[in-house]
Amino acid sequence: MSGARLTTVEFVVLVALLNAMVAMSIDTMLPAIGSIATELGATDPNSRQYIITSFFAGMTLGTLIYGPWSDSIGRKPAIFAGLVLYALGSLLCLFSTNFEMMLAGRAIQGFGAASPRIVSIAMVRDGSAGAAMARVMSFVMTVFMLVPILAPSVGQLVLFVASWRFIFAGFLGMGLIAALWLWLRQPETLPRERRSPLSVSALMSAAVEVLRHPVAMGYTLATGCIFGSFICYLGTSQQIFAVQYDQGEYFALWFGVFAIAIAIAMVLNGKLVMQYGMRSLSKWALRGNIVLSAGFLVAALAMAGHPPLWLLGIYLFGNFFCCGILFGNYNAIALEPMGRIAGMAAAISGALSSLIAIVFGSWIGQQYDGTVLPLATGFTVLGILALFVTEWAERRRA
Fold first, then answer.
1. How far is CA 92 from the centre of its chain?
2. Which one has a higher pLDDT value, 98 or 339?
Protein backbone atom coordinates (compact mmCIF):
# COMPACT_ATOMS: atom_id res chain seq x y z
CA MET A 1 0.00 0.00 0.00
CA SER A 2 1.23 3.54 -0.64
CA GLY A 3 -0.44 6.68 0.51
CA ALA A 4 -0.68 10.12 -0.98
CA ARG A 5 2.55 12.05 -1.25
CA LEU A 6 3.78 13.12 2.19
CA THR A 7 4.26 16.74 3.14
CA THR A 8 7.89 17.77 3.53
CA VAL A 9 7.54 17.94 7.31
CA GLU A 10 6.08 14.43 7.60
CA PHE A 11 8.71 13.02 5.23
CA VAL A 12 11.52 14.61 7.26
CA VAL A 13 10.13 13.22 10.52
CA LEU A 14 9.78 9.73 9.01
CA VAL A 15 13.34 9.74 7.62
CA ALA A 16 14.63 11.11 10.95
CA LEU A 17 12.87 8.26 12.81
CA LEU A 18 14.34 5.65 10.45
CA ASN A 19 17.81 7.20 10.86
CA ALA A 20 17.52 7.51 14.63
CA MET A 21 16.80 3.81 15.19
CA VAL A 22 20.51 2.98 15.25
CA ALA A 23 21.41 5.67 17.78
CA MET A 24 18.37 4.85 19.93
CA SER A 25 19.24 1.15 19.90
CA ILE A 26 22.75 1.89 21.18
CA ASP A 27 22.48 4.90 23.47
CA THR A 28 19.25 3.94 25.26
CA MET A 29 20.93 0.69 26.29
CA LEU A 30 23.97 2.20 27.97
CA PRO A 31 22.57 2.76 31.49
CA ALA A 32 21.23 -0.82 31.50
CA ILE A 33 24.13 -2.93 30.23
CA GLY A 34 25.48 -3.62 33.72
CA SER A 35 22.12 -4.90 34.95
CA ILE A 36 21.62 -6.98 31.79
CA ALA A 37 25.04 -8.63 32.05
CA THR A 38 24.57 -9.44 35.74
CA GLU A 39 21.04 -10.83 35.37
CA LEU A 40 21.94 -12.98 32.36
CA GLY A 41 25.02 -14.48 33.99
CA ALA A 42 27.97 -12.78 32.29
CA THR A 43 30.91 -13.57 34.58
CA ASP A 44 33.54 -11.15 33.24
CA PRO A 45 32.67 -7.49 34.01
CA ASN A 46 34.03 -6.48 30.60
CA SER A 47 31.61 -8.86 28.84
CA ARG A 48 28.88 -6.23 29.12
CA GLN A 49 30.67 -4.32 26.34
CA TYR A 50 29.63 -7.04 23.85
CA ILE A 51 26.02 -5.85 24.18
CA ILE A 52 27.18 -2.79 22.23
CA THR A 53 29.76 -4.33 19.89
CA SER A 54 27.51 -7.21 18.80
CA PHE A 55 25.00 -4.63 17.55
CA PHE A 56 27.75 -2.87 15.58
CA ALA A 57 28.89 -6.22 14.14
CA GLY A 58 25.43 -6.94 12.74
CA MET A 59 25.11 -3.39 11.44
CA THR A 60 28.46 -3.65 9.64
CA LEU A 61 27.28 -6.63 7.60
CA GLY A 62 23.93 -4.98 6.90
CA THR A 63 25.62 -1.78 5.69
CA LEU A 64 27.31 -3.77 2.93
CA ILE A 65 24.10 -5.45 1.76
CA TYR A 66 21.08 -3.16 2.02
CA GLY A 67 22.21 -0.25 -0.18
CA PRO A 68 22.89 -2.29 -3.35
CA TRP A 69 19.89 -4.52 -2.59
CA SER A 70 17.53 -1.54 -2.40
CA ASP A 71 18.76 -0.41 -5.85
CA SER A 72 17.48 -3.74 -7.17
CA ILE A 73 14.19 -4.39 -5.32
CA GLY A 74 13.15 -0.87 -4.32
CA ARG A 75 13.47 1.19 -1.16
CA LYS A 76 10.35 0.13 0.74
CA PRO A 77 10.86 -3.66 0.45
CA ALA A 78 14.47 -3.31 1.62
CA ILE A 79 13.46 -1.20 4.63
CA PHE A 80 10.60 -3.58 5.48
CA ALA A 81 13.00 -6.55 5.42
CA GLY A 82 15.32 -4.72 7.80
CA LEU A 83 12.51 -3.71 10.15
CA VAL A 84 11.27 -7.33 10.32
CA LEU A 85 14.74 -8.50 11.34
CA TYR A 86 15.01 -5.61 13.80
CA ALA A 87 11.72 -6.68 15.40
CA LEU A 88 12.87 -10.32 15.60
CA GLY A 89 16.12 -9.26 17.24
CA SER A 90 14.21 -7.09 19.71
CA LEU A 91 11.97 -10.02 20.64
CA LEU A 92 14.99 -12.27 21.13
CA CYS A 93 16.56 -9.71 23.47
CA LEU A 94 13.27 -9.08 25.27
CA PHE A 95 12.89 -12.76 26.19
CA SER A 96 16.59 -13.59 26.63
CA THR A 97 17.34 -16.20 29.26
CA ASN A 98 21.14 -16.15 28.93
CA PHE A 99 23.86 -13.78 27.80
CA GLU A 100 24.54 -15.60 24.51
CA MET A 101 20.89 -15.26 23.53
CA MET A 102 21.10 -11.53 24.24
CA LEU A 103 24.18 -11.12 22.03
CA ALA A 104 22.53 -13.04 19.17
CA GLY A 105 19.46 -10.81 19.44
CA ARG A 106 21.61 -7.67 19.42
CA ALA A 107 23.49 -8.81 16.31
CA ILE A 108 20.18 -9.45 14.51
CA GLN A 109 18.92 -6.06 15.70
CA GLY A 110 22.01 -4.38 14.28
CA PHE A 111 21.72 -6.18 10.96
CA GLY A 112 18.09 -5.11 10.67
CA ALA A 113 18.68 -1.51 11.79
CA ALA A 114 21.27 -1.00 9.02
CA SER A 115 18.46 -1.03 6.43
CA PRO A 116 16.36 1.97 7.58
CA ARG A 117 19.57 3.90 8.28
CA ILE A 118 21.14 3.33 4.84
CA VAL A 119 18.07 3.13 2.61
CA SER A 120 16.22 6.12 4.08
CA ILE A 121 19.04 8.38 2.84
CA ALA A 122 18.63 6.82 -0.60
CA MET A 123 14.92 7.72 -0.41
CA VAL A 124 15.87 11.34 0.15
CA ARG A 125 18.27 11.22 -2.80
CA ASP A 126 15.56 9.69 -5.02
CA GLY A 127 13.20 12.59 -4.47
CA SER A 128 15.55 15.57 -4.34
CA ALA A 129 19.04 16.71 -5.22
CA GLY A 130 21.43 19.55 -4.58
CA ALA A 131 20.14 22.28 -2.28
CA ALA A 132 16.76 20.57 -1.82
CA MET A 133 18.40 17.36 -0.61
CA ALA A 134 20.76 19.34 1.63
CA ARG A 135 17.77 21.15 3.16
CA VAL A 136 15.95 17.90 3.96
CA MET A 137 19.12 16.30 5.35
CA SER A 138 19.87 19.31 7.53
CA PHE A 139 16.49 18.87 9.26
CA VAL A 140 17.06 15.11 9.53
CA MET A 141 20.51 15.63 11.07
CA THR A 142 19.11 18.13 13.57
CA VAL A 143 16.74 15.45 14.87
CA PHE A 144 19.49 12.84 14.61
CA MET A 145 21.85 14.90 16.79
CA LEU A 146 19.23 15.18 19.53
CA VAL A 147 19.00 11.41 19.93
CA PRO A 148 22.38 10.75 21.64
CA ILE A 149 21.66 13.65 23.98
CA LEU A 150 18.26 12.34 25.07
CA ALA A 151 18.37 8.55 24.55
CA PRO A 152 20.38 7.57 27.68
CA SER A 153 17.94 9.59 29.79
CA VAL A 154 15.09 7.58 28.28
CA GLY A 155 16.85 4.36 29.23
CA GLN A 156 17.54 5.66 32.73
CA LEU A 157 13.91 6.67 33.20
CA VAL A 158 12.77 3.17 32.20
CA LEU A 159 15.14 1.65 34.76
CA PHE A 160 13.71 3.87 37.50
CA VAL A 161 10.23 2.39 37.04
CA ALA A 162 10.65 -0.99 35.33
CA SER A 163 12.97 -3.77 34.20
CA TRP A 164 15.56 -3.35 31.43
CA ARG A 165 13.38 -5.66 29.31
CA PHE A 166 10.93 -2.79 28.81
CA ILE A 167 13.66 -0.98 26.86
CA PHE A 168 13.52 -3.77 24.27
CA ALA A 169 9.74 -3.62 24.29
CA GLY A 170 10.17 0.05 23.39
CA PHE A 171 12.53 -0.87 20.52
CA LEU A 172 9.95 -3.35 19.24
CA GLY A 173 7.23 -0.69 19.37
CA MET A 174 9.47 1.83 17.59
CA GLY A 175 10.14 -0.65 14.78
CA LEU A 176 6.44 -1.48 14.38
CA ILE A 177 5.47 2.22 14.27
CA ALA A 178 8.12 2.90 11.63
CA ALA A 179 6.96 -0.06 9.51
CA LEU A 180 3.28 0.90 9.74
CA TRP A 181 4.01 4.56 8.95
CA LEU A 182 6.16 3.61 5.97
CA TRP A 183 3.55 1.18 4.64
CA LEU A 184 0.55 3.49 4.98
CA ARG A 185 2.03 6.87 4.08
CA GLN A 186 5.26 6.67 2.08
CA PRO A 187 5.11 5.89 -1.67
CA GLU A 188 7.95 3.95 -3.28
CA THR A 189 10.62 6.43 -4.41
CA LEU A 190 12.50 4.17 -6.85
CA PRO A 191 10.26 3.16 -9.79
CA ARG A 192 10.90 -0.16 -11.52
CA GLU A 193 12.38 1.45 -14.63
CA ARG A 194 15.16 3.04 -12.56
CA ARG A 195 16.14 -0.12 -10.70
CA SER A 196 19.32 -2.01 -11.49
CA PRO A 197 19.91 -5.73 -11.07
CA LEU A 198 21.94 -6.75 -8.04
CA SER A 199 25.43 -7.52 -9.28
CA VAL A 200 28.03 -9.19 -7.08
CA SER A 201 30.68 -8.49 -9.70
CA ALA A 202 29.85 -4.77 -9.65
CA LEU A 203 30.10 -4.75 -5.85
CA MET A 204 33.47 -6.51 -6.02
CA SER A 205 34.65 -4.04 -8.66
CA ALA A 206 33.66 -1.14 -6.39
CA ALA A 207 35.53 -2.78 -3.50
CA VAL A 208 38.68 -3.06 -5.62
CA GLU A 209 38.41 0.59 -6.68
CA VAL A 210 38.03 1.76 -3.07
CA LEU A 211 40.96 -0.39 -1.95
CA ARG A 212 43.21 0.83 -4.75
CA HIS A 213 42.46 4.54 -4.51
CA PRO A 214 44.76 6.16 -1.90
CA VAL A 215 42.30 8.87 -0.82
CA ALA A 216 39.31 6.53 -0.55
CA MET A 217 41.34 3.87 1.23
CA GLY A 218 43.29 6.25 3.48
CA TYR A 219 40.27 8.13 4.76
CA THR A 220 38.25 4.92 5.12
CA LEU A 221 41.01 3.56 7.39
CA ALA A 222 41.13 6.87 9.28
CA THR A 223 37.35 6.79 9.78
CA GLY A 224 37.71 3.28 11.18
CA CYS A 225 40.38 4.46 13.64
CA ILE A 226 38.35 7.42 14.93
CA PHE A 227 35.16 5.36 15.07
CA GLY A 228 37.09 2.60 16.85
CA SER A 229 38.03 4.89 19.72
CA PHE A 230 34.38 5.97 19.88
CA ILE A 231 33.23 2.32 20.10
CA CYS A 232 35.73 1.81 22.92
CA TYR A 233 34.14 4.77 24.72
CA LEU A 234 30.60 3.48 24.16
CA GLY A 235 31.55 0.04 25.45
CA THR A 236 33.33 1.25 28.58
CA SER A 237 31.40 4.45 29.41
CA GLN A 238 28.96 2.73 31.76
CA GLN A 239 31.81 1.06 33.65
CA ILE A 240 33.82 4.29 33.85
CA PHE A 241 31.04 6.61 34.98
CA ALA A 242 28.68 4.30 36.88
CA VAL A 243 31.28 2.03 38.52
CA GLN A 244 34.67 3.76 38.57
CA TYR A 245 33.35 7.27 39.35
CA ASP A 246 30.07 6.22 41.05
CA GLN A 247 27.96 8.41 38.76
CA GLY A 248 25.24 5.84 37.99
CA GLU A 249 22.32 8.23 38.55
CA TYR A 250 24.02 10.96 36.52
CA PHE A 251 25.40 8.78 33.73
CA ALA A 252 22.79 9.92 31.22
CA LEU A 253 23.59 13.55 32.03
CA TRP A 254 27.32 13.08 31.42
CA PHE A 255 26.67 11.21 28.19
CA GLY A 256 24.32 13.93 26.99
CA VAL A 257 26.90 16.67 27.68
CA PHE A 258 29.49 14.89 25.54
CA ALA A 259 26.92 14.32 22.78
CA ILE A 260 26.29 18.07 22.80
CA ALA A 261 30.00 18.57 22.01
CA ILE A 262 29.61 16.47 18.86
CA ALA A 263 26.42 18.33 17.88
CA ILE A 264 28.12 21.72 18.29
CA ALA A 265 31.05 20.53 16.19
CA MET A 266 28.77 19.31 13.38
CA VAL A 267 26.89 22.61 13.29
CA LEU A 268 30.12 24.62 13.34
CA ASN A 269 31.66 22.39 10.69
CA GLY A 270 28.70 23.05 8.40
CA LYS A 271 29.31 26.79 8.72
CA LEU A 272 33.09 26.70 8.30
CA VAL A 273 33.66 23.94 5.75
CA MET A 274 32.93 26.12 2.72
CA GLN A 275 35.37 28.75 3.97
CA TYR A 276 38.27 26.57 5.11
CA GLY A 277 37.68 23.24 3.33
CA MET A 278 37.18 19.71 4.64
CA ARG A 279 40.86 18.81 4.64
CA SER A 280 42.06 21.84 6.58
CA LEU A 281 39.36 21.52 9.25
CA SER A 282 39.95 17.78 9.56
CA LYS A 283 43.70 18.22 9.87
CA TRP A 284 43.39 20.66 12.76
CA ALA A 285 40.66 18.57 14.45
CA LEU A 286 42.78 15.41 14.28
CA ARG A 287 45.80 17.20 15.71
CA GLY A 288 43.63 18.58 18.47
CA ASN A 289 42.35 15.08 19.16
CA ILE A 290 45.89 13.69 19.44
CA VAL A 291 47.27 16.52 21.60
CA LEU A 292 44.31 16.36 24.00
CA SER A 293 44.49 12.56 24.23
CA ALA A 294 48.26 12.43 24.73
CA GLY A 295 48.11 15.17 27.37
CA PHE A 296 45.27 13.45 29.20
CA LEU A 297 47.09 10.09 29.01
CA VAL A 298 50.17 11.61 30.68
CA ALA A 299 47.98 13.14 33.40
CA ALA A 300 46.11 9.86 33.90
CA LEU A 301 49.38 7.92 34.20
CA ALA A 302 50.58 10.38 36.85
CA MET A 303 47.35 9.79 38.80
CA ALA A 304 47.40 5.97 38.56
CA GLY A 305 44.63 5.92 35.97
CA HIS A 306 42.07 7.73 38.15
CA PRO A 307 42.15 11.46 37.37
CA PRO A 308 39.45 13.69 38.91
CA LEU A 309 36.07 13.54 37.25
CA TRP A 310 36.18 17.21 36.20
CA LEU A 311 39.41 16.60 34.25
CA LEU A 312 37.93 13.55 32.50
CA GLY A 313 34.84 15.59 31.62
CA ILE A 314 36.83 18.47 30.12
CA TYR A 315 38.99 16.04 28.13
CA LEU A 316 36.07 14.08 26.68
CA PHE A 317 34.13 17.23 25.80
CA GLY A 318 37.11 18.63 23.86
CA ASN A 319 37.89 15.28 22.30
CA PHE A 320 34.35 14.67 21.09
CA PHE A 321 34.22 18.17 19.66
CA CYS A 322 37.20 17.20 17.49
CA CYS A 323 35.56 13.87 16.61
CA GLY A 324 32.37 15.65 15.56
CA ILE A 325 34.34 17.56 12.92
CA LEU A 326 36.16 14.43 11.77
CA PHE A 327 33.18 12.09 11.35
CA GLY A 328 31.37 13.94 8.56
CA ASN A 329 34.46 15.25 6.76
CA TYR A 330 36.32 11.95 6.61
CA ASN A 331 33.35 10.15 5.06
CA ALA A 332 32.91 12.90 2.48
CA ILE A 333 36.62 12.97 1.57
CA ALA A 334 36.74 9.17 1.24
CA LEU A 335 33.83 9.17 -1.24
CA GLU A 336 34.89 12.30 -3.12
CA PRO A 337 36.80 10.40 -5.87
CA MET A 338 34.11 7.70 -6.16
CA GLY A 339 31.47 9.76 -7.99
CA ARG A 340 30.31 7.25 -10.60
CA ILE A 341 30.01 4.38 -8.08
CA ALA A 342 29.12 6.48 -5.05
CA GLY A 343 26.39 4.15 -3.75
CA MET A 344 28.41 0.96 -3.81
CA ALA A 345 31.55 2.76 -2.68
CA ALA A 346 29.65 4.12 0.33
CA ALA A 347 28.57 0.58 1.23
CA ILE A 348 32.13 -0.75 0.92
CA SER A 349 33.73 2.17 2.74
CA GLY A 350 31.12 2.11 5.52
CA ALA A 351 31.43 -1.64 6.08
CA LEU A 352 35.24 -1.59 6.03
CA SER A 353 35.56 1.36 8.42
CA SER A 354 33.00 -0.23 10.77
CA LEU A 355 34.87 -3.54 10.71
CA ILE A 356 38.14 -1.81 11.59
CA ALA A 357 36.38 0.14 14.35
CA ILE A 358 34.83 -2.99 15.87
CA VAL A 359 38.14 -4.89 15.90
CA PHE A 360 40.15 -2.04 17.43
CA GLY A 361 37.42 -0.60 19.64
CA SER A 362 36.27 -3.87 21.17
CA TRP A 363 39.83 -5.11 21.80
CA ILE A 364 40.84 -1.88 23.54
CA GLY A 365 37.59 -1.89 25.53
CA GLN A 366 38.34 -5.41 26.77
CA GLN A 367 41.54 -4.09 28.35
CA TYR A 368 39.50 -1.99 30.80
CA ASP A 369 41.03 -2.52 34.25
CA GLY A 370 39.14 -0.10 36.44
CA THR A 371 41.12 2.91 35.20
CA VAL A 372 40.79 5.32 32.26
CA LEU A 373 44.21 4.31 30.89
CA PRO A 374 42.91 1.92 28.17
CA LEU A 375 40.46 4.58 26.94
CA ALA A 376 43.09 7.36 26.87
CA THR A 377 45.65 5.05 25.25
CA GLY A 378 43.12 3.96 22.63
CA PHE A 379 42.21 7.53 21.67
CA THR A 380 45.89 8.49 21.46
CA VAL A 381 47.13 5.49 19.46
CA LEU A 382 44.17 5.39 17.08
CA GLY A 383 44.45 9.16 16.53
CA ILE A 384 48.12 8.75 15.58
CA LEU A 385 47.21 5.90 13.21
CA ALA A 386 44.55 8.12 11.59
CA LEU A 387 47.16 10.86 11.15
CA PHE A 388 49.56 8.41 9.53
CA VAL A 389 47.07 7.04 6.97
CA THR A 390 45.63 10.46 6.07
CA GLU A 391 49.12 11.92 5.52
CA TRP A 392 49.94 8.89 3.36
CA ALA A 393 46.73 9.42 1.36
CA GLU A 394 47.43 13.12 0.83
CA ARG A 395 50.98 12.48 -0.32
CA ARG A 396 49.78 9.85 -2.77
CA ARG A 397 47.08 12.21 -4.01
CA ALA A 398 49.61 14.97 -4.57
1. 22
2. 98
Q: What pLDDT digit, counting tens, does each position of 246-297 carry?
A: 998 888 899 889 989 988 888 888 788 888 888 899 999 999 999 999 999 9
Amino acid at 193: E
7-188 with 199-398: one CATH topology? Answer: yes
**What are the structural domain ranges in the chain?**
7-188, 199-398
| Domain 199-398, CATH homologous superfamily name and number | MFS general substrate transporter like domains (1.20.1250.20)
Q: How many Cβ atoms from other residues are within 10 Å of residue 268's Cβ? A: 14
* pLDDT of 1: 47
| Greatest extent of the chain over all pairs of C-alpha atoms, in Å | 65
Thinking of the domain 7-188, which architecture would CATH place it in? Answer: Up-down Bundle (1.20)
Asked if residue 361 lies in contact with residue 53, where contact means CB atoms within 8 angstroms, the answer is yes
* Per-residue pLDDT tens over the stretch 332-354: 888 778 766 666 777 888 889 99
Which pLDDT belongs to residue 232? 94
Residue closest to 52 by CA, chosen among 70, 34, 75: 34
- Cβ atoms within 10 A of the Cβ of 198, count? 14
